[in-house]
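Technical note accompanying the year-one report. For the benefit of new consortium partners, we illustrate the data format agreed upon in the data management plan: each record pairs a sequence with a structure-token string. No post-processing was applied to the example shown here.
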Amino acid sequence: MKSDTPKVLHPILGRPMLDYVIKAVRGSGTERLLVVIGFRQEMIMDVFRGFDIEFVIQKERLGTAHAVLQTASCLEGFEGDCLITCGDTPLLSDQTLRNIHEKHVAEDADLTLLTACLEIPTGYGRILRDERKRVMGIVEEKDANEHQKAIQEINTGVYCFRSKILFDLLHKVGNENQQGEYYLTDCIALARNAGLQISNHVLENSTEIFGVNSRVELANATKLIRKKKLETLMMNGVTIMDPDSTYIDYDVNIGKDTVIYPYVVIEGKSDIGKGCSVRPFTYIKDICVGDGGVIGKGALGPFDTSDPEAYN
């Protein structure tokens, strides 16, 4: 990201990226939430202070397996299932997380991974299968040969493990790879060699596992989430004349029969009533407008939110 701000705190429609992942995990029915953090951890803890979250510090960033291993002391004695996901996949849905756990339980698996098929799998770890189509392991792209790079089924970074199995495997993971890191993905081959039951759920909508690693990808993720927000508003009775030029934050509420003209930006926790009209070239933030309000002074010029008479 080339930023002093931790990647997971970069905002999407007014909310930190990590907040979307937390919302999905909460919605999946997960009972306890641990977030492993490292870079600028104080900033992350400040933003999410008061949330029902347990933060675990990864002092040295030695790979994904090492990150998960830091939770071992917190989960000592726990015998349930552990759902693992990444903090930079804001499009991931709670339904997908429920699906992977349901598959895990139904097949009485020791571990279950979420995979997806991409036309262009560049950047992702590839799923390795045997002649019977059973998952045998995952190879990261930097360690893959040309044949393996041609595989289109990829690892999404979402897993469900039996807790005891997870930590037994993590202690066996080595770092003999191009990065010199401890990969969580190596647990799959270790599990197969140990004769454990491995299952996988294939994600139908591969857009969900879109990961954010740059400002370009942040903009692309924001565009997708913005489209979904606007569609939800329109399905609930709001007229948005030109979705392509309209920017509305995630936490904004708008009543039915309100009309949003082109080139409107509504941010923060703004609350717009029913039957309102938000004129072109209007910018508002954290504003409440009653039913029937007209916001903006016509089609020309920006709306000055510092002028209280503008609401009359």
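Partners are asked to follow this layout when depositing records. The radius of gyration is 23 Å.
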